[in-house]
Amino acid sequence: MLDDSKPSIDWDSLTFSFTETDRMFISKCEQGGEWEDGIMQDYQDLRISPASGVINYGQGLFEGMKARRSEDGRVLLFRPEFNARRSADGCRRLGMPPVSEEMFLDAVRKVVKENIRWLPPCGRGELYIRPLIFGSGAILGVAPAPEYTFLIYAVPVGPYFKGGMNPISLKVSDEYHRAAPGGSGGVKAIGNYAPGMMPSKNAKSEGYAEIIYLDAVNHRYIEEVGAANFFCVKDKIIYTPELTGTILPGITRMSTIELARSLGYEVQETKVDVKFAMTADEAFCAGTAAVISPIGSIEHSGEVAHYSDGGIGEITQELYTALTDIMNGRVEDKFGWTPEL
Questions:
Q1: Of 127, 157, 187, which marks where a domain is finished?
Q2: Helical packing angle, 251-262 and 314-327, nearest 10°
Q3: What percent of the chain has pLDDT over 90?
Q4: Is 195 inside a domain boundary?
Q5: Domain check: are 186 and 145 in the same one?
């Protein structure tokens, strides 16, 4: 029987951190076979071989998505079909069996329903949903694992950046790069994230919120902001790095572009030179965890660019309000982005 009591959480102090919840979904698949229907079970540790493909060769990916409670009590997801499709594309790139869109979405809904008591009240956080697909079977040579696991758990979370919707300071990395052409930069592969931990930690120790990566070929074009996509605004035109296979095709990125164009703004998906970005009027980053976060300043090679006089840019604020109003069910969703649970 599911526990319907309220968890003892101070919702107003909620951060973007791990909290063990009640239930998780899990399914298995043999290489060359079909995914099992899967089951819901109590949240628990996994039993896995030391020779598993994910531990030895990093054969795995994850997704990040959120469920929100609207003011009128509905539970809303945000474009979950694109997480399903992105994960399937990633599985193919990493040599893993894709999970069907139908199975993915059904599992997501089950996990939210069976952890519903952990969903924060409207405006006080979200239920972060974490699907994982990885090689759980034992393999010694560098080859696809013989068995795979698909699981989903969920965690209540608050703002990704401390302080919520306040301008953050970023530092451009000239030494480290996130991905190279032909690699797995466009996949939400688990191996893409560990190499960024040390540069990010170093930047945070210097007082910055996160690092900005440049491209690995020319060392001049902005790629990503840690785990979020980058945008800047110059003369009311919005610019964001184009998808060339080296950056993640973010769902919040895609939605921000579509929303901005619907509001009449010109959006250019192009190569964004860091020198150009330093002269922009506004800058912000976008992602599932961060949603839209204004950038107050960027440091690059000893120079510091400040945006919007230290506040939140007008276009940044307009996009944030318009996007979160849709996500939280405060306005009519004319796009059909927020299916109810």
A1: 157
A2: 110
A3: 91
A4: yes
A5: no
SS3 328: coil
Question: Please, how many CA atoms are within 13 Å of residue 81, restricted to the half-sphere of its CB?
Answer: 6
Q: Of 340, 16, 294, 22, which is closest to residue 154 (Cα–Cα)?
A: 22
Q: What is the tens place of the pLDDT at every residue in 98-112?
A: 999 999 999 999 999
Indicate whether 71 belongs to any domain.
Answer: yes
Which phi and psi angles does 318 have, rounded to 5°? -60, -45
Q: What is the DSSP letter of 93?
A: H
Helix 101-114 vs helix 80-93: crossing angle, to nearest 10? 120
Residue 25 located in a structural domain = yes
Q: Is the pLDDT of residue 52 over 90?
A: yes
| Residue 320, pLDDT score | 95
Considering only the C-alpha atoms of the chain, give the largest distance between any 2 of them, rounded to a whole number of Å: 59
Q: What CATH number does residue 214 fall under?
A: 3.20.10.10
Residue 310 burial by Cβ neighbours in a 10 Å radius (0-12, 13-18, 19+): exposed
pLDDT of residue 280: 98
- Please confirm, yes or no, whether 204 is among the known catalytic residues: no
- Domain end residue (candidates: 130, 157, 184): 157
Q: Which of 188, 201, 234, 334 is catalytic?
A: 188
Question: Please, what is the end-to-end C-alpha distance for the chain in angstroms?
Answer: 20
For residues 252 and 306, state if they share a domain: yes
Beta strands in 121-252 (DSSP E): 126-135, 147-157, 168-173, 210-214, 222-225, 228-234, 237-241
Closest CA to 235 of 281, 289, 293, 190: 281
- 57 and 193, same structural domain? no
Q: What is the pLDDT of residues 247-273, one digit of tens each?
A: 999 999 999 999 999 999 999 999 999
Rounded CA separation 272/29 (Å)? 41
Give the structural domain span for 59: 11-157
State the pTM of this model.
0.95
Coil/strand/helix, residue 173: strand
pLDDT at 8: 87
